[in-house]
């Protein structure tokens, strides 16, 4: 049975793209309080079902598939550049295919401007008109206005005219940055990409008994199950260890783990994997904002997803990617890694930043463990010492050394040299991600 929150989200998703909604309207339509309606609209915004714009309102926009996430709607553009909508508000839900900077003659400008694009230009009102007639939206820089006839044309064609106080270069940089951020998000695996949905998940009810657990165990061969109420609310987890020596008639809510650790759809797979290792659990329930069970993810699912992600081409570069690109591995048994400090990895003093140095050592350690065929690993704790400042464009040599290794933990020592000078040391403990 769906909660009020879920029903509101389903209602919002059923609305035609381009419709305006408000807290008051949703509260009246769904017969809920304005607080409940507000929370649901905020969640819809997080799910990219709607976009809220100052002085315009909240608009239902098209939910983009992950492969098209880098394509922005005009509503998102307005928020990115702190814009003001001069006309064509009913077209804000549309998605732009490209943007064109109008720093050329009018005829040349129009050759590059086509339907679905966004023309970024100053106070050239004729260019505004021509772009709208071509099927393109217009972004006016420098805080300029346009003619009333152009505003009317924008309303008629459902194509936004947006004005911003920023200059053309700044606007283009901001939009590029937003697309770049979206590309990075696109590369990050989330629970929603890999989880096992509710319809394929074996569960137990909170009024079931140990006998029901054994029945499910024989049917599925699984050793752990989420425990839910009649309304599908997660209330516990039960494993084979919990039922050892228990009577068949004993209720499972007496032996289950109550208020178990759970993940949401938007939790990253890496974060879920770390949590599962640290807490020593093999099955993680996935819930929504109301605490209703949506599915599960296993440690095996996490491992497969991480391994698959490492084989995929990456589009957006994070600081981790920049660090990995500068690593050169030498040696077979006694591994050494050469590394060049680029300007992007430095702090305000021109020395390597603590974050970049930490990522470097973590990556070197993980690589050394893979060479020992120990699989995936995550850092549990670390102690890092800077002995001498490391300036940009320095070439470093990192020498990892395994001090102690068990089935679950590895302790490693690192020495970092610049030429023959010792510039840094570290001690790290890794936890191994078991299959």
From TrEMBL:
Keywords: CBS domain. Transmembrane segments: none annotated. It holds the Pfam family 4HBT. Residues 195-254, 256-318 form the CBS domain. InterPro entries: CBS_dom, CBS_dom_sf, Diverse_CBS-Domain, DRTGG, HotDog_dom_sf, Ser_kin/Pase_Hpr-like_N_sf, Thioestr_dom, WH-like_DNA-bd_sf. Gene3D superfamilies: CBS-domain (3.10.580.10), Hotdog Thioesterase (3.10.129.10), HprK N-terminal domain-like (3.40.1390.20), Winged helix-like DNA-binding domain superfamily/Winged helix DNA-binding domain (1.10.10.10). This is CBS domain-containing protein.
């Amino acid at each position: 049975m769906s909660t009020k929150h879920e029903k509101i989200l389903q209602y919002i998703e059923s609305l035609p793209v381009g419709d305006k909604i408000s807290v008051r309207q949703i509260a009246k339509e769904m017969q809920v309080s304005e607080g409940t309606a507000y929370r649901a609209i905020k969640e819809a915004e997080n799910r990219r079902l709607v976009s809220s714009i100052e002085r315009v309102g909240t608009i239902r926009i098209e939910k983009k598939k992950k492969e098209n996430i880098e394509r922005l709607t005009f509503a998102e553009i307005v928020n990115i550049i702190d814009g003001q909508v001069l006309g064509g508000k009913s077209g804000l839900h549309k998605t732009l295919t490209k943007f064109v900077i109008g720093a050329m003659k009018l005829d040349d400008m129009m050759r590059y401007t086509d339907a679905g694009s966004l023309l970024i230009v100053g106070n050239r009102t004729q260019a505004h008109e021509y772009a709208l007639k071509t099927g393109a939206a217009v972004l006016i820089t420098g805080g300029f206005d346009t003619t009333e006839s152009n505003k009317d044309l924008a309303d008629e064609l459902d194509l936004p005219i947006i004005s911003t106080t920023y200059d053309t270069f700044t606007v283009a940089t901001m939009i590029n940055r937003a697309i770049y951020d979206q590309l990075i998000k696109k590369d990050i695996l989330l629970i929603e990409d890999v989880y096992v949905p509710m319809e394929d998940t074996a569960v137990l009810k909170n009024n079931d008994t140990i006998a029901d657990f054994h029945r499910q165990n024989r049917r599925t061969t699984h050793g752990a199950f989420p425990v839910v109420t009649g309304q599908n609310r997660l209330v516990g987890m039960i494993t084979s260890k919990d039922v050892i020596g228990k009577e068949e008639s004993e209720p499972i809510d007496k032996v289950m783990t109550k208020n178990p650790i759970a993940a949401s759809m938007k939790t990253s797979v890496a974060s879920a994997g770390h949590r599962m290792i640290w807490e020593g659990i093999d099955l993680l329930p996935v819930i929504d904002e109301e605490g209703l069970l949506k599915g599960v993810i296993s440690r095996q699912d996490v491992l497969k997803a991480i391994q698959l992600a490492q084989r995929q081409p990456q589009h957006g570069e994070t600081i981790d990617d920049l660090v990995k690109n500068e690593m050169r591995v030498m040696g077979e048994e006694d591994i050494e890694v050469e590394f060049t400090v680029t300007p992007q990895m430095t702090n305000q003093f021109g020395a390597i930043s603590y974050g970049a140095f930490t990522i470097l050592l973590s990556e070197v350690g993980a690589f050394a463990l893979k060479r020992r065929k120990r699989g995936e690993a995550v850092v549990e704790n670390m102690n890092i010492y800077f002995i001498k400042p490391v300036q940009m464009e320095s070439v470093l040599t990192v020498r990892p050394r395994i001090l102690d290794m068990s089935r679950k933990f590895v302790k490693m020592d690192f020495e970092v040299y610049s030429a023959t000078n010792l510039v840094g040391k570290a001690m790290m403990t890794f936890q191994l991600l078991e299959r």
